[in-house]
Amino acid sequence: MKNSRTFFTTETRRTRGFTENLDASVHLRVLRVSVVKLCAQIFSIFNLRSSRRILPLFALTLTAGCRQDMHDQPKYEPLEESPFFEDGRSARPLLPETVPRGYLREDAHLYTGKAGNADAETFPFPITGEVLERGQERFNIFCSVCHGRLGDGEGMIARRGFRRPPSYHIDRLRQAPVGHFFDVITNGFGAMPDHATQIPVRDRWAIIAYIRALQRSQHATLDDVPLQERDKLTAGGQQR
Ligand code: HEC
Asked: Which of 133, 134, 177, 216 suits a disulfide with 119, CB 3.0-4.6 Å?
């Protein structure tokens, strides 16, 4: 602890601060007055016509070097004690239930994936093509490394020895409510780490929407394919 400040008690430090500041402001005033006088003399010697316009500028340049440092003013440092309040703390504790700006999470469906105590069965916002595209991109970045791009559990990390995740296309996961997926992404599941810090809430839902699309893709019938695309499929691969 080489910090010289530790040798002063709170009281001496504060008094010291006050006197230093007083000295500084007196010096500053004296200096300003003398600078203005000096300028007036210089200009009266040269008797320049434009002197009135230049004078303030000149004075400003000379006084620019004088300042009162804010770090010298009397102040409380974080966690410093104060005899002013009964609990001896200089900082006031936050009021109960204070919410930091941007952290008001009133929408439980969106932020927890729960409907009451159960996993939500629905998405908290409409799923558009744009959301699905975002979900596809995020899924390929964050999940496919283990779960594979098809969600069949054939990701490279699993192939190299990490615990093999279940395929999304098994019945249990096809029937699992979307809230279950939200829970797995947010809190992790068994060997799978949670992704709460990497993936913002809305992106988690976008990923889940894309997983639903993947699940559908693996159990689609010809009726799910748009008419103009069907020929390609029935042609039996000859289109290549
Ligand atoms: C590091 C590899 C890894 C990554 C990355 C990963 N998972 Fe998993 N996931 C696993 C493993 C392993 C399991 C099986 C865990 C177990 O049973 O212990 C699993 C299980 C799951 C399950 C099934 C839970 C159940 O009920 O059986 C879901 C759903 C899931 N992951 C979704 C995701 C999503 C969505 C992402 C991307 C945001 C993701 N995972 C990223 C490895 C991963």
From this structure: 177
* Ligand 1 and 191: CB distance under 6 A: yes
Query: What are the sequence ranges of the domains in the chain?
Result: 2-66, 108-221
Mutation test residue for ligand 1: of 139, 142, 146, 214, the one with most atoms within 8 Å of CB: 146
Residue 4's pLDDT band (cuts 50, 70, 90): very low
How far is the centre of ligand 1, averaged over its atoms, from the C-alpha of 38 (Å)? 78
Q: Is the pTM of this model over 0.85?
A: no
Could you give the angle at which helices 201-217 and 178-187 cross, rounded to 10 degrees? 130
| Protein residue with least CA distance to atom 34, ligand 1 | 143
Where is average pLDDT lowest: 27-41, 84-98, 150-164, 211-225?
A: 27-41
CATH code: domain 108-221 is: 1.10.760.10
